[in-house]
């Protein structure tokens, strides 16, 4: 997962709360760091995204494949 994909996924899932959940919410799945701290510490984006999903009870159906752009049409 690229950083841009992570950001799109967070924005789509959390809307106006996106900045808060990335910078203020402590995630047990990444050592009780915030998503921003975990990313800065080199934790893979996908692991941070999944930890964020677990912590905020995002349904599994919305955890995989999010953040990807739709394929370009010819």
TrEMBL record:
Lineage: Bacteria, Bacillati, Actinomycetota, Actinomycetes, Micrococcales
InterPro entries (alphabetical): DUF3046
Annotated protein name in UniProt: DUF3046 family protein
